[in-house]
Structure formats: structure tokens, C-alpha cells
Specification:
Blueprint lengths: L1 E9 L2 E8 L7 E11 L1 H8 L3 E3 L2 E2 L16 E8 L11 E4 L18 E2 L1 E4 L3 E3 L12 H12 L8 E5 L3 H12 L3 E6 L2 H4 L10 E4 L5 H8 L4 E6 L4 H7 L3 E9 L12 H4 L4 E4 L5 H12 L9 E6 L3 H10 L6 E5 L9
Parallel strand pairs: 11-12, 11-14, 12-13, 14-15, 15-16, 17-18
Antiparallel strand pairs: 1-2, 1-8, 3-6, 3-9, 3-18, 4-5, 6-7, 7-10
Helix pairs in contact: 2-3, 2-8
Protein name: Zinc-binding alcohol dehydrogenase
InterPro entries: ADH-like_C, ADH-like_N, GroES-like_sf, NAD(P)-bd_dom_sf
Pfam families: ADH_N, ADH_zinc_N
């Protein structure tokens, strides 16, 4: 079966190509995409050649991870269902994760996101509410990562949580912590992104680290200390800077990518009995919970979208992302409905 896909052919090079998908198996679902949401941090790391799988960094001697179809989150309409799929029907709107594609780097054979039609195992497909705004769910995996960050640490109502990073995961982590009753401070370097976090009339706050010292702000605003630090960008130095402000039994949540330079000193955490959670990937119960929060509007997704690109303009989207030629946050690829000549 032929399909259209975004392909990273070599480091820094993005093309839209026709590729071949394996024939669907009895437990597969074939999905025609309407939208796929770019995971700008993770996919940029792949495009630079820094990773070979998920959170596994590339090291000398590893197979060269190109070409690859990037991505892992998309929404669309069911075109076909396998013989063993009895709970989905053609025409239903769904969210999907991993796809299967032939002739592309084997390391990513189960991870293609930006490809339509997508051949997806039933276990990685979620039915969406009828009549929903599909694009709101197109970043569901990444929203689930933010939900994981925000739901993992113990925090009491009124507790203080500091989120390092104003990207998508940072926003959804901050939203989740706010839903749990925490007072949230988001640290970031992009005023346009920080402005998208609802500070709820002063209950929460943002700190532009380009103009303000996080330590000075925390000392003034939270003189009694903080309870949670969430790192969403992979900065050991920022974590270590904030650890002295954690109260006893405080908590660190790490969701950043540290590559091969991932050293956090544990001994300084012992005096205050600081807990550490390292979060990654996706899990079905978390995905279910995140979907419900998006469906009820408790997790906001659409307000974080800054750019839509037709899929044929994906190389332009990536030029913007890699060069930072203009401010961006959520970047979505829009797929044509007409699949004639592809199926």
C-alpha cells in the first residue's frame, strides 16, 4: 500500500515522499490523517542525528538512523479495520500513535507518525468523541507527557511547583499541576510562549529567564521554599540551581533529554530526602486520562497551536523550527482529504 510521508533523509534534510506500507494485519487499523502534530523537541533531535530510538542517544558505532519517518501522534478517519478489530468502524474519528512503514530505517519501523494512510496496530488507536475538534487531540501523546509530569509528584493544594521550560510539555505539566491545586511558576526564555500560560489572576506566575533571575524571583515570591521542580528541557544545571529551594520531602520530575551527559548528583538530595521521578513514553491509562481532560477542556491544547502547514510544506515547517526564524509553539501538519492515487 502506498502512502505519503514526511521523511528525514539525512541530517537536516526533510522531504515529502511516497512510501510503501505493509499490508494491514488482522489486528491493524488503517487511518486517513487530517492532522499530525509535530513534537518539535524530540523530532528536531532526531533530525540532527542525536537519537536512534525514543530517549536513546546516538553513540559512535550505532547504526545511522536515516532515512526515517518521524513523529508519533496524529488524528484522522478510519478507512479499514482488520478482521480481528470489532470495536471500531470505517468512518470513525480516531487518534493514533505508531505506524508501520516498509523500506525505512528498521529502528523506527513502529514509530512513523507523519504518514497517511497510516497502518496502525489497534492497541495504539483511540476513538475520539463524536463531533469533537479533531485538531485538539492531535498532540495527545505529548499532552500525556505533560500530564505525566504534572500528575506524578505528590503536591498538596497550595503547594508550590516550578516548571522549567515554556514548551508544550512545560505548558501541559503546568496546566496539570494547576488543576491539582498547586501554585505554579513557569520558567522560560520566550515571552510569547510564557504569555500563553494562564496565570489565573496572580495565583500562578511566569518568569522570563532572559530578564529575571529565577533564584531571585523564588526567594522573593516563595521565601518558605518550593515543593516540586519539573525539568522539561533537559538542563541539569537548572535543576541543581533550584534544588536548594526544595522543602524537605520535595520532589524532582525529570522529562528532559540529556543525551550522553546526564549526571545529576544524588548525594545533595539526601539531606532533605528529595524524591526523583524520571518520566518518559506513553502508557494506556495515562493516555485515557489525558484524552478525558482534553475532551472536557481541562487541558488546553488548541490555544498552544501557533502554526498550521499543509503537509506538502513540511520542509518549510522544519526550516522554521530548526532556524527559529519566527516564534512558534504548537506546529501542526494538515493533510488533504483526497487520497486518490495513494491507496
Amino acid at each position: 500500500m502506498r502512502a505519503k510521508a514526511v521523511v528525514f533523509t539525512t541530517p537536516g534534510v526533510v522531504e515529502v515522499q511516497e512510501v510503501t506500507c505493509p499490508e494491514p494485519r488482522p489486528d491493524d487499523v488503517v487511518v486517513a490523517l487530517t492532522h499530525s502534530w509535530i513534537s518539535t523537541g524530540t523530532e528536531s533531535s532526531f533530525l540532527r542525528g542525536e537519537r536512534i530510538r525514543g530517549d536513546t542517544p546516538w553513540r559512535d558505532g550505532d547504526p545511522w538512523p536515516f532515512p526515517v519517518v518521524p513523529g508519533y501522534q496524529k488524528v484522522g478517519t478510519v478507512l479499514r479495520v482488520g478482521d480481528r478489530v470489532d470495536d471500531l468502524e470505517v468512518g470513525q474519528t480516531v487518534f493514533a500513535v505508531a505506524s508501520r512503514v516498509s523500506g525505512i530505517c528498521d529502528l523506527f519501523a513502529e514509530g512513523a507518525g507523519h504518514i497517511s494512510p497510516s497502518v496502525v496496530p489497534r492497541s495504539w488507536v483511540w476513538r475520539l468523541p463524536e463531533g469533537c475538534d479533531q485538531v485538539a487531540f492531535s498532540g495527545l501523546v505529548l499532552a500525556q507527557v505533560g500530564y505525566n509530569c504534572g500528575s506524578r509528584p505528590p503536591v498538596e493544594i497550595g503547594g508550590v511547583a516550578v516548571v522549567i521550560g515554556d514548551g508544550l510539555v512545560g505548558h501541559w505539566a503546568a496546566q496539570t499541576l494547576a488543576l491539582r491545586g498547586a501554585r505554579v511558576a513557569m520558567l522560560g526564555r520566550h515571552s510569547d510562549r510564557l504569555a500563553r500560560f494562564d496565570t489565573a489572576g496572580g495565583l500562578h506566575m511566569v518568569v522570563d529567564t532572559g530578564t529575571q533571575s529565577p533564584r531571585a524571583v523564588i526567594e522573593k515570591r516563595f521565601p518558605d521554599g518550593i515543593d516540586v521542580v519539573v525539568d522539561t528541557v533537559g538542563t541539569i544545571e537548572a535543576l541543581e540551581e533550584l534544588v536548594p529551594y526544595l522543602r524537605r520531602f520535595g520532589h524532582i520530575v525529570s522529562a528532559g533529554f540529556y543525551g550522553v551527559r546526564d549526571r545529576l548528583a544524588l548525594q545533595p538530595l539526601r539531606d532533605q530526602e528529595i524524591g526523583v521521578d524520571v518520566v518518559a513514553g506513553l502508557e494506556h491509562r495515562r493516555m485515557d486520562a489525558t484524552l478525558r481532560l482534553v475532551a472536557t477542556g481541562q487541558l488546553k491544547t488548541v490555544p498552544l497551536i501557533t502554526h498550521h502547514f499543509p503537509v506538502d510544506h513540511a520542509p518549510e515547517a522544519w526550516r522554521m523550527i530548526m532556524t527559529h526564524s519566527e516564534p512558534y509553539l504548537g506546529v501542526v501538519l494538515d493533510w488533504a482529504d483526497d487520497l486518490s492515487g495513494v491507496l
